[in-house]
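User: I'm new to structure prediction. If I give you an amino acid sequence, what do you actually give back? Let's try with this one:
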Amino acid sequence: MMQMSMIEAIRDAMDVKMSQDPSVLTFGEDVGYFGGVFRCTAGLQEKHGLHRCFDTPISEGGIVGIAIGMAANGLRPVAEIQFADYIYPGYDQIASEAARLRYRSNGDFICPLTIRTPVGGGIFGGPTHSQSPEALFTHIAGLKTIIPSNPYDAKGLLISAIESDDPVLFLEPKRLYNGPFDGDHETPSVSWKGHDLGEVPDGHYTVELGKARMISEGSDLTLIAYGTMVWVAEAVAKNLGIRADIIDLRSLVPLDLDAIETSVKKTGRCVILHEATRTSGFGAELMAQVQERCFYHLEAPIRRVTGWDTPYPHAQEWAYFPGQKRVTHAVREVLEAA
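Assistant: Good question. You get back a string of structure tokens that encode the predicted 3D arrangement of the chain. For your 338 residues, that looks like this:
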């Protein structure tokens, strides 16, 4: 086992696969010589060469387009979009080409493409460097959508994504790159060093796509979260002294519905958390699934705590971010409902 930040775990996953499989390569804006804006690819060009880790022009449509062509012709590209806010020029090709290639060719072609991109706020990135667009991609049939919350999962999930024969969107919460974050911006930052989930096995291992992680178990209520909000959920449960099932989804598509259904039927109460905007966010899909599968077991209305329906504000970042105060209020309402 090695102590790693999420940045180091992501880099190690790519290094492992590039060392094992000559068809794996990575590229994007500043990915090669500079090692990525967050340093996730640092040293890969020096180790694996200019043809397997290289810089591209500032053209997200071009990055996605060449990645799809590579994947259709036998390579396993790992393309980086520097911020999720800039993925939209490549959206058409992701939705219309990558996600549908296997289906439209009746299985004659596959698209083993992984697209990595940082998401979320918490670093004062403002409206153009803080977006969480996961819901836009979970609507696309044929595309897997993954969001890790810790270094251990990040490495195992990324290796699984690279090995997948279908396209995977791998979303990396940038506020978790260097340590867990419980939503309290007034406390000192915490490092992954010394944290249990910062202990990452050396070499190859995988975490199954579509399998949620149960962080804690209890009978009071179910907290469903992913990415940064996992740590906010854990902090709120601890501060309130409640016994909660806390589910880290890890994978939005495929979704571990069995874990969700089993938990909510046990607790009868459910709060859903995500950082993205509220309207048509992935929390709405989760609410629908819980309602359809667990209606007769519910003891209180389902609540969701999310970002607001505005661009991510720079000056009012912590009013937008669904922190402990808002989550605590929702949890209390659900627990106190008759």
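You can read the tokens as a compact description of the fold. Here is one thing that stands out. The first strand starts at residue 2 and ends at 3.
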